[in-house]
Amino acid sequence: MDLKLKQCFIAVDDFDKALAFYCDTLGMEVRNDVGFEGMRWVTVGSPLQPDVEIVLEPPSANPDASPADREVMAQLLAKGMLRGVIFTTADCDALYGRVRESGAEVLQEPTDQPYGVRDCAFRDPAGNMLRFMERAGD
Description:
Elements: E1 7-11, H1 15-25, E2 29-36, E3 39-45, E4 53-57, H2 67-78, E5 85-88, H3 92-101, E6 105-112, E7 117-123, E8 129-135
Parallel strand pairs: 1-4, 5-8
Antiparallel strand pairs: 2-3, 3-4, 6-7, 7-8
């Protein structure tokens, strides 16, 4: 099988704040910015991985979602209950310092884990959990 990850999706409630975080703080680049049926999707990615993208989307991007479903999604996002992503980095401590200085909510300071990584965790401006890990020996 020839199978590779291309895109993952992260719900955001404020594109300006999300872009400042993902691009200015994390160093990602905007690859696409699309509007459709009153919604917006912005694709970002690391310059180090041109074939992998993160799509920033409204909390309920499905145009068929009911108003009640949209409200539930917005509430889950506000509580930080939607899943985020895990990034790798060559220097967890340096990344931690840069992200902390941005004002992002710290969930975990850099910690050596028993399964062979050093990692830290933050919430993005929308409340999504993001983890950053450095593999031992990298």
